[in-house]
Protein backbone atom coordinates (compact mmCIF):
# COMPACT_ATOMS: atom_id res chain seq x y z
CA UNK A 1 0.00 0.00 0.00
CA UNK A 2 2.76 2.47 0.93
CA UNK A 3 4.75 1.70 -2.20
CA UNK A 4 1.77 2.29 -4.44
CA UNK A 5 0.92 5.52 -2.59
CA UNK A 6 4.50 6.78 -2.97
CA UNK A 7 4.43 6.13 -6.71
CA UNK A 8 1.03 7.76 -7.16
CA UNK A 9 1.98 10.80 -5.07
CA UNK A 10 5.36 11.21 -6.80
CA UNK A 11 3.92 10.96 -10.29
CA UNK A 12 0.94 13.15 -9.39
CA UNK A 13 3.19 15.82 -7.93
CA UNK A 14 5.49 15.74 -10.99
CA UNK A 15 2.50 16.10 -13.33
CA UNK A 16 1.12 19.00 -11.24
CA UNK A 17 4.44 20.88 -11.26
CA UNK A 18 5.09 20.24 -14.97
CA UNK A 19 1.54 21.28 -15.89
CA UNK A 20 1.82 24.45 -13.83
CA UNK A 21 5.14 25.23 -15.52
CA UNK A 22 3.68 24.87 -19.00
CA UNK A 23 0.55 26.86 -18.10
CA UNK A 24 2.74 29.66 -16.73
CA UNK A 25 4.78 29.55 -19.92
CA UNK A 26 1.64 29.71 -22.10
CA UNK A 27 0.31 32.65 -20.06
CA UNK A 28 3.39 34.69 -20.89
CA UNK A 29 5.37 34.41 -17.68
CA UNK A 30 8.82 32.93 -17.94
CA UNK A 31 9.29 30.32 -15.23
CA UNK A 32 12.72 28.74 -14.96
CA UNK A 33 13.29 25.17 -16.17
CA UNK A 34 15.68 24.62 -13.29
CA UNK A 35 12.96 25.49 -10.77
CA UNK A 36 10.56 23.00 -12.33
CA UNK A 37 13.15 20.23 -12.55
CA UNK A 38 14.36 20.84 -9.00
CA UNK A 39 10.81 20.63 -7.66
CA UNK A 40 10.15 17.42 -9.58
CA UNK A 41 13.38 15.86 -8.24
CA UNK A 42 12.40 16.79 -4.68
CA UNK A 43 8.97 15.26 -5.34
CA UNK A 44 10.60 11.99 -6.41
CA UNK A 45 12.88 11.68 -3.34
CA UNK A 46 10.45 9.34 -1.53
CA UNK A 47 10.73 6.95 -4.50
CA UNK A 48 14.19 6.12 -3.11
CA UNK A 49 12.35 4.54 -0.16
CA UNK A 50 10.97 1.91 -2.54
CA UNK A 51 14.42 0.30 -2.65
CA UNK A 52 14.28 -0.46 1.09
CA UNK A 53 12.87 -3.73 2.37
CA UNK A 54 10.80 -1.90 4.94
CA UNK A 55 9.74 1.71 4.47
CA UNK A 56 10.54 3.39 7.80
CA UNK A 57 7.96 6.17 7.50
CA UNK A 58 4.21 5.94 7.95
CA UNK A 59 1.81 6.76 5.15
CA UNK A 60 0.54 9.89 6.96
CA UNK A 61 4.15 11.13 7.19
CA UNK A 62 4.71 10.52 3.48
CA UNK A 63 1.45 12.31 2.66
CA UNK A 64 2.61 15.14 4.94
CA UNK A 65 5.77 15.44 2.86
CA UNK A 66 3.76 15.93 -0.31
CA UNK A 67 1.40 18.34 1.44
CA UNK A 68 4.40 20.45 2.49
CA UNK A 69 5.74 20.40 -1.08
CA UNK A 70 2.30 21.33 -2.44
CA UNK A 71 1.99 24.28 -0.04
CA UNK A 72 5.54 25.51 -0.72
CA UNK A 73 5.95 24.90 -4.43
CA UNK A 74 2.46 25.01 -5.90
CA UNK A 75 0.49 27.34 -3.65
CA UNK A 76 3.49 29.36 -2.52
CA UNK A 77 5.52 29.69 -5.72
CA UNK A 78 3.16 28.95 -8.61
CA UNK A 79 0.01 30.59 -7.23
CA UNK A 80 2.19 33.29 -5.61
CA UNK A 81 0.91 32.88 -2.04
CA UNK A 82 4.34 34.10 -0.88
CA UNK A 83 3.61 37.44 -2.55
CA UNK A 84 -0.11 37.59 -1.74
CA UNK A 85 0.03 36.69 1.96
CA UNK A 86 2.77 38.13 4.16
CA UNK A 87 2.30 35.34 6.71
CA UNK A 88 2.60 32.44 4.22
CA UNK A 89 6.37 31.94 4.57
CA UNK A 90 6.23 31.96 8.38
CA UNK A 91 3.40 29.41 8.46
CA UNK A 92 5.35 27.15 6.08
CA UNK A 93 8.43 27.33 8.28
CA UNK A 94 6.32 26.37 11.28
CA UNK A 95 4.66 23.51 9.38
CA UNK A 96 7.97 22.34 7.93
CA UNK A 97 9.45 22.19 11.40
CA UNK A 98 6.45 20.26 12.75
CA UNK A 99 6.81 17.81 9.87
CA UNK A 100 10.55 17.45 10.49
CA UNK A 101 9.97 16.85 14.20
CA UNK A 102 7.63 13.97 13.30
CA UNK A 103 10.36 12.62 11.00
CA UNK A 104 12.71 12.75 14.01
CA UNK A 105 10.22 10.71 16.05
CA UNK A 106 9.98 8.15 13.24
CA UNK A 107 13.78 7.93 13.02
CA UNK A 108 14.01 7.54 16.80
CA UNK A 109 11.58 4.62 16.66
CA UNK A 110 13.50 3.09 13.78
CA UNK A 111 16.98 3.43 15.26
CA UNK A 112 16.43 2.76 18.98
CA UNK A 113 15.78 -0.87 19.92
CA UNK A 114 12.75 -1.46 22.12
CA UNK A 115 14.97 -3.03 24.77
CA UNK A 116 16.93 0.22 25.13
CA UNK A 117 13.97 2.58 24.86
CA UNK A 118 12.85 2.24 28.48
CA UNK A 119 16.25 3.45 29.69
CA UNK A 120 16.23 6.60 27.56
CA UNK A 121 15.14 9.77 29.30
CA UNK A 122 12.18 11.64 27.88
CA UNK A 123 14.36 14.76 28.02
CA UNK A 124 16.84 13.14 25.66
CA UNK A 125 13.99 12.43 23.27
CA UNK A 126 12.86 16.04 23.66
CA UNK A 127 16.36 17.30 22.83
CA UNK A 128 16.74 14.95 19.87
CA UNK A 129 13.42 15.96 18.30
CA UNK A 130 13.97 19.67 18.96
CA UNK A 131 17.55 19.62 17.67
CA UNK A 132 16.54 17.71 14.55
CA UNK A 133 13.74 20.19 13.77
CA UNK A 134 15.85 23.29 14.51
CA UNK A 135 18.72 21.94 12.39
CA UNK A 136 16.31 21.43 9.50
CA UNK A 137 14.97 24.94 9.99
CA UNK A 138 18.50 26.36 9.86
CA UNK A 139 19.27 24.27 6.78
CA UNK A 140 16.12 25.63 5.11
CA UNK A 141 17.34 29.18 5.81
CA UNK A 142 20.72 28.35 4.27
CA UNK A 143 18.94 27.12 1.12
CA UNK A 144 16.91 30.34 1.01
CA UNK A 145 20.10 32.38 1.41
CA UNK A 146 21.84 30.48 -1.39
CA UNK A 147 18.74 30.96 -3.55
CA UNK A 148 18.77 34.70 -2.93
CA UNK A 149 22.51 34.95 -3.69
CA UNK A 150 22.02 33.03 -6.94
CA UNK A 151 19.03 35.20 -7.88
CA UNK A 152 16.47 32.40 -7.70
CA UNK A 153 14.74 33.92 -4.65
CA UNK A 154 14.16 37.46 -3.50
CA UNK A 155 16.70 38.77 -1.04
CA UNK A 156 15.84 38.07 2.56
CA UNK A 157 16.50 40.46 5.37
CA UNK A 158 17.55 39.66 8.90
CA UNK A 159 13.99 40.09 10.22
CA UNK A 160 12.66 37.49 7.76
CA UNK A 161 15.45 35.06 8.59
CA UNK A 162 14.90 35.41 12.33
CA UNK A 163 11.11 35.15 11.99
CA UNK A 164 11.49 31.98 9.91
CA UNK A 165 14.01 30.52 12.36
CA UNK A 166 11.86 31.30 15.40
CA UNK A 167 8.81 29.86 13.66
CA UNK A 168 10.78 26.70 12.89
CA UNK A 169 11.94 26.49 16.50
CA UNK A 170 8.37 26.88 17.75
CA UNK A 171 7.10 24.03 15.59
CA UNK A 172 9.94 21.77 16.70
CA UNK A 173 9.46 22.75 20.35
CA UNK A 174 5.76 21.86 20.33
CA UNK A 175 6.35 18.41 18.81
CA UNK A 176 9.37 17.82 21.09
CA UNK A 177 7.11 18.42 24.10
CA UNK A 178 4.60 16.02 22.58
CA UNK A 179 7.33 13.39 22.11
CA UNK A 180 8.59 13.81 25.69
CA UNK A 181 5.07 13.64 27.13
CA UNK A 182 4.25 10.60 25.01
CA UNK A 183 7.36 8.85 26.32
CA UNK A 184 6.36 9.63 29.90
CA UNK A 185 2.84 8.27 29.38
CA UNK A 186 4.08 5.13 27.57
CA UNK A 187 6.53 4.41 30.42
CA UNK A 188 3.64 4.36 32.89
CA UNK A 189 1.81 1.61 30.96
Folded structure, characterized:
- The protein is mainly alpha-helical and 189 residues long.
- The chain contains 8 helices and no strands.
- Helix 1 (2-26) runs antiparallel to helix 2, helix 1 runs parallel beside helix 3 and helix 5 crosses helix 7 (122-149).
Task: Sum up the structure in keywords.
single chain; 189 residues; mainly alpha; 0% strand; globular
Summarize, please.
This protein is mainly α and 189 residues long. It has eight helices and no strands.
Strand content: under 5%
Count every helix, treating DSSP H or I runs of 4 or more residues as helices.
8
Rg calc:
18 Å
Order of helices and strands: HHHHHHHH
Question: What best-fitting shape do the alpha-carbon axes yield?
Answer: globular
Low-confidence stretches are none
How does the major sheet shape up?
none
* Helical fraction: over 70%
Write down how many β-strands occur, each being a DSSP E stretch of 2 or more residues.
Answer: 0
What class, by secondary structure content?
Answer: mainly alpha
Amino acid sequence: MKKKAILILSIGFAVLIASAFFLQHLNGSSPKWTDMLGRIVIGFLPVLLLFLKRIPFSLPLIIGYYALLFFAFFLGAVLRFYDRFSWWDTVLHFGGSVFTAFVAIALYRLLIPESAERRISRWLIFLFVLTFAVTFSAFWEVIEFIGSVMGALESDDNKDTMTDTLSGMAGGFIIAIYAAFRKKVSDQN
